[in-house]
Amino acid sequence: PLARRIAAQAGIDIAAVKGSGRNGEIRRADVDAAIRAAAVPAASVPASQPAMRAAAPASEPATPAGLSPMRRAISRRMTEAWRNQPMVTLSRRIDVTALSAWRSALAKPAGMTAVLAAIMGRVLARHPRLNGTIEEAGLRSGGPVNLAVAVALDDGLVAPVLQNADTKALAVLDAELSSQIYLARAGKLGTEAMAGATASLSNLGGFGIESFTPILTPPQICVLGVGAIDRNLRETDGGFAFRSEMHLSLTIDHRAVDGADGARFLQDFATLAQTPDQLLAPLPSS
Prior knowledge:
six-stranded mixed β-sheet; alpha+beta; 22% strand; single chain
């Protein structure tokens, strides 16, 4: 199962991997070798020996030529998701005026993505149906929240996983995420660091993007897209005031959950953003 999950995260066809275990069992080392082999540039093949390309099965979509190994893997995964997962995206704005002020007042301010990850981890623990995977073998949900966080690279993205994000204090998540981002951009992030995700978070607010529609990463059930914070004039009990607002977009697999499930998730996310003090302390694991 670990080898299968790592292959899925890397966009490797597990059926094409040669197993070195007993009776041809595919092990993690076999998948790692396949990932390394896929990363070898086509230019390494001598001009006198044209590269052989196996014909893709008729059911498989064509992958555009000229893409880097990372972009080919992303192409396969996104096409698989778009074709096989019935997606629904729910969007809403939430007030983050209190959250922004609270974050600025911290003795050691954490990155906004880490703050969002801490909130999402705790909210997913309250909504276990959204936290898990759905595959041919069936639905698996309700376990620890292993949250994949999208990290942009020069030619694609990777998604290191914050294990047990529902129980860790903000400072711990911030340190782990900072370390993973550094390793990812240095090209030193191992495949094991990207395996086993049960949900995903993608924050494009730092690029000034107001909103977008995130695509699920198979076999996960949900992914949360976060846009930039903007200031809007709103009516309040005392008149009018400017409030800081953030746009959230939650994409869900409609086979596993319904729109109402996603709506309740977003409502609880908005509520926790108003009372963020509990993010400072770890929670006991269930």
